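Chapter summary example: a protein plus A1CAB.
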Amino acid sequence: MKIAIIGTGNLGKSIAKGILHSNGATTLYLTKRDTSELAPFEKYGNVKLTSDNIQAVQESDIIIFAVQPGHLAKILEDIKGSLTEKHVLISTAAGFPIQNMEAIVGAHNYILRAMPNTAISVGKSMTCICANAPGQKRMDLAQAIFDRMGHTMAISEELMQAATVICASGIAFWMRLVRATTQGAIQLGFDAKEAQELAVHTCNGAAGLLIDSHSHPEAEIDKVTTPRGCTIEGLNEMEHQGLSSSLIRGIVASFEKINQIKQM
Ligand SMILES: NC(=O)C1=CN([C@@H]2O[C@H](COP(=O)(O)OP(=O)(O)OC[C@H]3O[C@@H](n4cnc5c(N)ncnc54)[C@H](O)[C@@H]3O)[C@@H](O)[C@H]2O)C=CC1
Ligand SMILES: O=C(O)[C@@H]1CCC=N1
């Protein structure tokens, strides 16, 4: 599989690492206006670095656009003359609708949007994907690529903004919860390194319980909460302080913001 990542910044580098660690590409083009920062990728034999987007497109089958939304239209204009029927276009640009891509390159192309998160670099991204009508024929291919780097879900485009908040911004939200747990553990006597280890692996275990058993969080909570015990005491105090409410309000605020700053 010949893949190009157009615009290898924060997310593009994470995707590149995920593809390389999952052996997901025979050739991987990474483009950036100044490629010097991408030098660490040169150690991989199948990686080619270039600032020439047209060359990367011509020599690849799957094109992943990981540029800021404001740069995408110009790049699509630049490369549209090099597109052939083999190309599958996948954009990660938040808030740049498929319709706008179609208006530039043509609605006959396979056009998809993917919203991975930065955990793609360690093969654990939650990636939501949607496609235009022709692109539906390439959904399986796109899901196969991103499934190698985590978990995927096909969604309708109208939910892409919500998916961005829950999955992409969600990494930051979960990090803050882990940090708060770590701070609590330090207050209880663990050193910072131990505290983070405890927090991270407990978080991983909680997610693992839900992923493997498909059970409901409250069912797992019921198994832990001894009547008159310490867990329910802590949980109820967290809720008195607004834990669930603050998370939900934060998610809604994030969603309102993304709808203000993005086009769709
Ligand atoms: N899923 C996620 O977790 C996240 C997604 N995003 C979305 O992903 C996209 C990329 O975000 P970041 O990686 O944070 O941005 P970034 O600014 O770090 O990376 C974009 C890269 O594109 C390069 N670039 C700009 N114009 C170019 C051109 N003409 N040719 C080649 N390269 C060019 C820039 O030099 C830069 O390195 C954005 O649309 C953003 O909305 C952003 C952050 C997180
Ligand atoms: O914070 C943001 O606006 C971008 C989109 C999703 C993650 N980062």
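Key point: The mean pLDDT is 95.
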